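Below is how a single chain appears once it has passed through the pipeline. First comes the sequence as given, then the structure the pipeline wrote out for it. We keep one example in the README because the format questions we get most often are answered faster by looking than by reading.
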Amino acid sequence: MLKAGVLGAGHLGKIHLRLLNQSNQYKLVGFYDQDTVNAQKVADEFGYTLFNSVEELIDAVDMVDIVTPTLSHYECAKQAIAKGKHIFIEKPITNTVEEAEHIRELLAENNIRGQVGHVERFNPAFIAVKDKVENPMFIETHRLAEFNPRGTDVPVVLDLMIHDIDIILSVVKSEVKNVSASGVSVISDTPDIANARLEFENGCVANLTASRISLKNMRKTRFFQRDAYISVDFLEKKCEVVKMKDAPEHPGDFDMILQNAEGIKKQIYFDNPNVGSNNAILDELESFANAINNNTTPIVTLNDGTEALRVATQIINCFK
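Resulting structure:
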């Protein structure tokens, strides 16, 4: 079993601690949090071993799980890599693209593994349809959340929209050609609601909306491609696949047939796969353990995390 340690024991850090402690792939060694009051409270409540410093924790483990505020990701990752430790970093990978690129270079030089916590890649609704998403030409995403002071230290693009940026980059096999966006600060000092349009070299267009001041939560993505429409509800963990094929010469009474202006007839049918049940955070952590143990490429690489941050940064720069 891989010896794992967690840096950061906030809301998400406590979830990682619990899941690593449950996992059959890891042995949870302990954690460190610079907030000494919170750290001691977590240690007392759950019985996890509390380390006195980042350095002590890193020395005691094989894998460092970085769940600290984004501003500290870079320094934590550098220290872990310097000691030859594998790193799992929550999204966004770092605060700047330059920091992310440096971490990526250090990782390659030291021949160790790194993964970024873009957890929606492990959402069962997305897993159920990702192989059916083939050359989408229009994508629409809505990620809306009720206001929560936690996370408002960064723009909504880095807080919420970056999930959808990563999903889109994972299915569109083309370079981003143009980025345009607008954002509004309503409650926070940084934008709380934003809309972005990504244009790709292959002609695909993605329209993304993210808000953290909505009255209800929503996480939906729609993919449109030749002869198919695919919808993924990341929140409800549901998906819908609507496909079209050439209509039969003699359609049945209940067949759904459409005819365009040119007289071409298409049959509409539903191809909805079963959506499994899983814990996406546990799955992403254990998939990283598999990559380490088998010396394979992690599902969400540091390169993936860097590119998602690069696009997010381009979007944020549009606000200035």
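The chain has a mean pLDDT of 93.

See the next section for the split statistics.
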